[in-house]
ATPase/histidine kinase/DNA gyrase B/HSP90 domain protein
Amino acid sequence: MGNKPQRKWTAVAGAVLLCMAVIFIVFFFGEVSTAKFDSVFLFPTPEYETDWRYYDEAGNAGYEAHQEDGYLVEVEGTVGNAVAAERVMKEPLENAALKFQYLNRQISVYLDGTLLHSDIPGTPEQGVEFLPPDAEFFQKNRDAFKTQYVTLPDDYLGGTLTVVTYFADDIPMVPAYPTMQNDDTVASYPVVDSARPLALSGVFAAAAVLLLVLLVYAVLSGIPDWPVALLAAFFLCAMIGQVYTSTAAYYSIGTNLAGYLVSALYADLLLLFFSCYMRKGFRIAMLCAVAFHAAATILQALDNAWAGEFYEAGNEGWVAFGTLMLFAALCFFEWRAKKPVFAALGKYIAAFGAGYAALLACAFFFAPDSVFAEDVWRPFSSFVSGRAVAFNNIFSICLSIAGLVIIFLDFIRRNISVRTERNMLALKNETVLENMRGMEAYMRRADEQRHEIRHHIAALRILLKNGEEQKAQAYLEELSEAVDASGLRRYTENMLVSAILNGEASKAARSHVEIDAELGVPQELSLSDNDLCSLLYNMLDNAIRACAELPEGRERRIRFKMQKKGNFLVIVCRNPKAETIRTDAEGHIATSKRNAAGHGYGLSVMRKICEKYHSVLLIEIDDEFFTVRTNLRLPD
């Protein structure tokens, strides 16, 4: 009753967060999917042969040095701090312009030997020349990321484009490559190149929305599982990371440190989600590993930015790989401990591994030279060549899918359990309240009999005075039978508490169990009758059942204490402990009934009622006794 406003505002806050997440996703995709200009990408990649030729001031020819995955590392074979990159322009584009983005570099751009742009003052208008770079520029603008637009003449097709790039000291010799673009037409390359990451980010966005819906529904149902918020955050950040790495986002948003860190660290949220279900020591170990990975990634990105390199330069993914391997080891130990989440996770990962092995076999036997085979094999080929990023990504995707399935199935199971619990609890409460109404009537009749006792005493005096002892004896026996027939006891002035105790005492007597009650409860309590009924019924019912299972010779006595102290209601129930206390896989006390379905909810019900009245349910177990106690705060 006192907790309803809190639950109401929690639900409202969850609904607002859900709406904000949906709006954010819609606008985010709307922004990155809007092409701001058409473009032709002229950076040399394995997919695009751009036919660049390189030479230095002395005429030495340079050549491209590539990584194992085919991407350019630097131009080698040249001398000095400047290199010219030259190619013939063959790409038709109306109203074309060249866009350069570079850091710690200066450029001069020529078309057929005619200067179009130069960062160095005094560059001649005709003829490609190497000039001394502006040292003062490098000193003042070392960390300035520069974007330069150079307009091409209408007759640029067939012309020779020359870009002379000047480098600061200790900077890799990677020329400033342009992108051809205009403001009128729709980009082709960014859309094609972005199709896969944008589609994957759409899947991640849908998963995030689904988890947020489940979380809000769980909060409204009173069974929130807050680690789900971490999994939802992972999918949201994964969505941002996939979009950030797409070409469409590069052209509409650009590159920045925050975007790179989100794309590099979002998998850590997944590990934190699973660590919430680990033992405390393992959870601390994972938290430390994730913190180390985050710190290493941030420091490396800042160092790269300071050195004028790409944020991701040097990030081969080995720190993240080590974090994942630690996580896998801890999951193995939790699986051995039969933790439910990790038992399910082990099955799903085994299924994913078998499926991936099947894909590898299909690619190897049926299409070994296809793009499909290259994509399937890439996590392992890049791993062998010294980069673990692709392997980490596929492992994280498998973990995320497994986490989503586990949460969804657990949500269904918990929802069914809660509905079953509430239905059973409603039946129990209805039965108890019905018994209470009947007992109240009996107890009122007993009170009436007590008020009439003086009349009976007066009649007995008359009989004894007249010497009619036999009639007096018969009268006493009749009166005694009438009193005993009620079988009721007034434990306290509170009719509901007395009714519950009378019903439980009758049940206990059938199992040869005694209840010693010490009560100090006023006639009226500000607790809900339904809550009080559920709490006492479950507490005493569990104690009676435990005593009934005791072997012969053990004392079957329940000590029950209930007193109002100030604004609190103190309740203590102690019963002899059975030889063993059954627990489930998570260490919680389990039902001892053969048919566990539909049973075992008593402690859960009592805990929720205690939380509602700002208290906890304390359970104490020693060699002899099982004690349950709570201290409920009574509403005003």
Observations:
- Residues 32-37, 185-190, 593-600 have pLDDT under 50 and may be disordered.
